[in-house]
Amino acid sequence: MDAKRVKQILASPANIDVVYNGTSVWIDSLHEDETRATVHLRGPLEERSEVDISELTEA
């Protein structure tokens, strides 16, 4: 995924399914360098991780 698409997803009111390493995640924010994002798993666990946006895909 690229930074432009991450920004579109963050700005969208729609529920867009994003996958990281085979797991559905929410994107919380895009970092200033526009190569990394903070995400958390969908569901009750809200553990946040920093990931490379190139590893994110839309389901």
TrEMBL record:
Induction: Expressed only in the forespore compartment of sporulating cells.
Keyword Flavoprotein: no
Protein species of origin: Halalkalibacter wakoensis JCM 9140
Subcellular location, record wording: Spore core
Listed GO biological process terms: asexual sporulation; sporulation resulting in formation of a cellular spore
This protein's name: Small, acid-soluble spore protein H
Keywords: Sporulation
Keyword Nucleus belongs to the record: no
Superkingdom to which the source organism belongs: Bacteria
Assigned GO CC terms: endospore-forming forespore
Homology family: Belongs to the SspH family.
